[in-house]
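User: Just a sanity check before I run the rest of the batch. Below are the C-alpha cells for the first item. I only need the designed sequence back.
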C-alpha cells in the first residue's frame, strides 16, 4: 500500500492506558511498530510554560492514542531504562480518495521524565 510503503524504520510504542490518581501518565506494554522518523525540531512553549522541542508529522502504521509514548529503535535494542522517549501529543488520519486506506501520522514532543508506569 502506498500509505505504508515509506515506513521503513522501527519504533517502540507504549500505548496510552490511563492516568493515575495523581494525574501521572500510565502506559501499556511496549510493542514494535513501523514509522518514518522525520526529525524537524522547533522550540515553543507548552501548556505549563515549559520549553520543549517537537518532531511533527511522524507517519505511523496504526491508530495511536494521544498520551502514548514512543521511541525510535527496535524493541530488542531498548536500553534499560529507556531513554530519548517522546509523548504523542496529536494524531491525524487522512483517507484516500475512495476512503479505503488511510495515511496516519502523529505529532510528538520530547518526554521530560522517565518512562511512565506500565500497567
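Assistant: Here's the designed sequence for the first item:
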Amino acid at each position: 500500500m502506498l500509505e505504508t510503503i515509506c515506513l521503513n524504520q522501527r519504533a517502540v510504542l507504549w500505548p496510552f492506558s490511563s492516568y493515575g490518581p495523581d494525574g501521572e501518565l500510565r502506559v501499556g506494554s511496549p510493542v514494535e511498530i513501523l514509522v518514518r522518523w522525520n526529525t524537524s525540531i522547533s522550540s515553543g512553549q507548552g501548556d505549563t510554560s515549559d520549553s520543549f522541542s517537537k518532531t511533527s508529522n511522524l507517519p505511523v502504521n496504526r491508530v495511536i492514542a494521544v498520551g502514548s509514548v514512543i521511541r525510535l529503535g527496535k524493541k530488542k535494542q531498548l536500553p534499560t531504562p529507556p531513554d530519548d522517549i517522546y509523548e504523542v501529543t496529536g494524531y491525524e488520519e487522512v483517507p484516500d480518495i475512495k476512503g479505503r486506506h488511510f495515511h496516519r501520522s502523529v505529532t510528538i514532543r520530547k518526554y521530560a521524565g522517565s518512562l511512565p508506569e506500565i500497567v
